[in-house]
Amino acid sequence: MTSPPDAAILSAAGIHKHFGALVVLDDVDFAMGAGEAVGIVGPNGAGKTTLLSVLSGAFPPSSGTVSFKGSDVTLLPATRRCRLGLVRTHQVPKPFAGMTTFENVFVAASHGAGLQRDEAYEEALGSLRLCGMLGVANRRAETLGLLDRKRLELARALAARPTLLLLDEIGGGLTDGEAGELVGTIKELRRRKIGIVWIEHIVHILLQVAERLICMDAGKIIADGEPQAVMADPEVIRAYLGGGPK
Amino acid sequence: MSAASPVIERGTATSRIAGVAVAVIIALLAFAPQFLSAGAVDRMTALFIYVILAAMWNALAGFGGLVSVGQQVFFGLGAYFAIRLADAGLNPFLALFASGIIVGAVSWPLSLIMLRLRNGEFAIGMWVIAALTHLLVNLDRLVQGETGTSLISLNVYDASARRLTIYWLALASMTALLAILFGLLRGSTGAAIRAIRDNEDAAASVGVRVTGTKRLLFVLAAFGIGIAGALWLATSITFQPKTYFNVQWTAYMIFMVLVGGIGTFEGAILGAVVFFLIETWFGGAGVWYLVGLGATAVLFSLFLPRGLWGTIEERFGLRLLPVGYRVRLATDVVDPAGNDTQPQHTTTDRETA
Question: Which terminal Cβ of chain B has fewer Cβ within 10 Å, N or C?
Fold first, then answer.
């Protein structure tokens, strides 16, 4: 049982994940401090979403440990991690289709954040307001378009009162203008000292928020550091543009 | 941001009137036997039992997404345990409720296995459990296989006093079970139940205890259907396993819920009344009655997939016993980021539940 460095709110050590013979994560080490904003990029199939799922507790790693707020959460299911303040959004939005937008968010406020009645209402309304969704509060989630579904993912995760938010391609499939709106919201979260791990393909959007960038390829972290330096890294360029076998 | 804070509404003026109306109807039903013939009292007792069955199946499938075709297992066990308890010397009326509690207790360990199954596996798995339980009950010597037995100890009571007592017990059970269900579905657990129905993984990722919540619903439905089975035994006295463990009971539950409106609290009750009326008017038609029931179910699923109440709710925005939440915006919303405003601003979109 490795104890994470003092400053780290979330850390992962020696993470391996394989599905049958397919190795998706190959010895990934990762740590971040409270309130940090980390972007993760990498080509398709690099293992970004799998890493996020291991961090959020959607499934356990094949080996390795995950620690959050100083305790080992490797075997803790997503429900419990959410209640500790580690909350994710999904790449393909997963709304509660038969419930209204407000009810979707209320579930997170009452169960994720553990709030009662009026407090839960306030939290849910606050999240909807922040994500610009008050106007569609009474619409059934199944009637929402893609942008609103993405916003709902964010609003719902926020209502669970995260200390650390894991965003999985929240901007994917959106126009630049639409993604820009989401960036505005996410910048507001930064002001509220919520830590962020954000996987995104649209790099220039990501760079508006991320202070640190990680690039993954073939299940490994190949670069980690100051965003501009990472983007200029020869390894990263090779992973994206394909330099052929090394 | 917006000037005045939005308000969360849990009911409407109509729903408050409906609440009073429900109380009045139940009070009238309590006095109704004074004016009803013996046969009518028995029929009304059957109606109350149907309402319990429909409401429980609706809670499980319509709200919780747990579609089961084996709920007759709890109906049969409710009757069986009542027979057993009465045979052991317990007052037969007390035995009816003790039996419901035992059925709920039995369903708990069963849920440990069954709730691991999803969707179709769960539905058919429950049917298998019902068939197995039927066979096990047949092994009990007291039951004498398919010959069956009866709740003999009820015979010590005078026929009319017995009929009235069972009527009131059924009315009280129905009222209490509906109240418990309504309270549960209206609370934050109810929101969690619907969230699990819509997306289990997403529910877990926002902090909902998925398995525990499903278990609560499963046990509650078992308890309610167990009570219904015990009450049915009390009205008919005789217990033949194949009558009680028959899949027709679940078929009736599904019929009532689909016709009434799945996933709406009012729908299950309305569906039970519709089923009761069809049975009362056409029940004597033998095979053609069953053909008619089947045809009705097919027609509804083709043309009114949301059932009678679902359609009424959608068409007229009528909500009598709402379990959902509505946000009333105090002023016109000004989007904080000046985002695209939704044209649906003021229209009220319908919601289920």
Answer: N
User: Is residue A23's pLDDT more than 50?
Assistant: yes
CB pairs under 8 A between A and B: 149
B7-328: which CATH number, 2.30.30, 1.10.3470, 3.20.20, 2.60.40? 1.10.3470
Map tokens 């709902």 to a residue: A152
| Chain segment B294-343, per-residue pLDDT in tens | 899 899 989 998 999 999 988 888 888 888 898 888 755 444 444 444 44
Inspect the interface and report whether the beta carbons of B198 and A99 lie closer than 8 Å: yes
Nearest Cα residue to A154 out of A122, A180, A106, A186: A186
- Complex ipTM: 0.89
Interface residue A90 vs chain B (CB under 8 A): yes
User: Domain-by-domain residue ranges, chain B?
Assistant: 7-328
Say what angle helices B159-186 and B38-57 make with each other, to 10 degrees. 20
H-assigned helices in A37-175: 48-56, 78-84, 101-107, 117-130, 146-159
Written out in words, the top-level CATH class of the domain with range A1-85+165-246 is alpha beta
Tens digits of per-residue pLDDT, B194-249? 999 999 999 999 999 999 999 999 999 999 999 999 999 999 888 999 999 999 99
Of A102, A108, A140, nearest to B207 by CB-CB distance is: A108
Residues of A in contact with B325 (CB under 8 A): 100, 102-103, 106
| Residue of A108, A129, A130 with shortest CB distance to B206 | A108
Distance in angstroms (rounded) separating the CA atoms of residues B320 and B16: 8
By C-alpha distance, the chain A residue nearest B342 is A135
Interface of B with A (CB under 8 A): 1-2, 5-6, 8, 188, 191-192, 194-195, 197-199, 201-210, 263, 324-327, 329, 333, 335-337, 339, 341-342, 344-345, 348-353
Percent of chain B with pLDDT over 90: 67
When CB atoms are compared, the residue of B199, B337, B345 closest to A96 is: B199
Question: Is A60's Cβ below 8 Å from some Cβ in B?
Answer: no
What digits encode the pLDDT tens for the residues A149-190?
Answer: 999 999 999 999 999 999 998 888 888 888 888 888 999 999
Token digits of residue A13? 């050590």
Q: How far apart are CA B76 and CA B83, in angstroms?
A: 11
Average pLDDT over residues B132-139: 93
- Give the separation between CA B263 and CA B276, rounded to whole angstroms: 20
